[in-house]
Design goal:
- The protein has a single domain (3-178), classed as Flavodoxin domain (Rossmann fold, 3-Layer(aba) Sandwich).
- The protein is 38% helix and 22% strand.
- It is built from 5 helices and 6 strands; from the N terminus they run βαβββαβαβαα.
- The model has no long low-confidence stretch (mean pLDDT 97).
- The structure holds flavin mononucleotide.
- Flavin mononucleotide (FMN) is lined by residues 10-16, 57-61, 101-104, 111-112, 138, 140.
Length: 179
């Protein structure tokens, strides 16, 4: 049986919704899924899974601090174990999926890609194959102006049920690709 670890940070629920949709999709294809916060994942062994999914909101166009701290700690661990190598050779069977929720009120997706690319870069360094880098426009809870007047238009209610269903389907495809 294939296994996955989903680590996500969420302060207003958007990233959690996406994490749960990914979990449903993976489980539909019989992948055993552990779901953790960055704090809970501090001792998790990334090497023990076929797929690591990491999700964060974009916070000032970077991963949220708990996620950034976790990934930095894992980098330090991998480095101490001699696993950070020149040319970052791929480790067979180790895959990662990166997902970012964001509101893009000022400059649109440009506010999310730095967060996603930063998370991705850790896994590239670890030698994981990054199977996806997803950006999900989401409501800026508590900020009506940022949810309605920004570059991405009206984000209220996003991610919607339809968008979450699509995320679930996409996760099913990733699960199939692991087999
Ligand atoms: C303090 C703070 C800073 C944020 N900075 C950005 C940002 O730079 N770019 C962006 O697109 N969205 C930004 N957002 C919006 C969040 O990324 C977005 O609403 C996200 O979906 C929240 O995820 P969560 O509900 O899982 O916490 C910010 C939100 C907060 C609260």
């Amino acid at each position: 049986m294939k296994s996955a670890l989903i680590v996500y940070f969420s302060s207003t629920g958007n990233t959690q919704k996406v994490a749960l949709a990914i979990k449903e999709g993976l489980e539909k294809e019989s992948v055993a899924v552990d779901l953790k916060t960055p704090q809970e994942a501090a001792d998790a062994d990334f090497d023990g899974y076929d797929l690591i999914c990491v999700g964060s909101p974009s916070i000032e166009w970077q991963p949220a601090k708990p996620m950034a701290d976790l990934l930095k700690a894992k980098l330090n661990l991998y480095r101490s174990q001699g696993k950070i190598k020149p040319c970052a050779p791929k480790v067979p069977g180790q895959n990662a999926l990166v997902f970012v929720t964001y509101s893009g009120p000022h400059t649109g997706i440009e506010e999310a890609t730095p967060a996603g690319k930063t998370m991705r870069q850790y896994f590239e360094h670890f030698g994981f194959t990054v199977v996806g880098e997803w950006y999900i426009p989401s409501e800026f809870h508590g900020r009506l102006d940022m949810s309605t007047l920004g570059r991405l238009g009206d984000l209220r209610g996003k991610p919607s049920a339809d968008e979450l269903a699509k995320i679930k389907k996409d996760a099913e495809q990733i699960a199939k690709s692991l087999l």
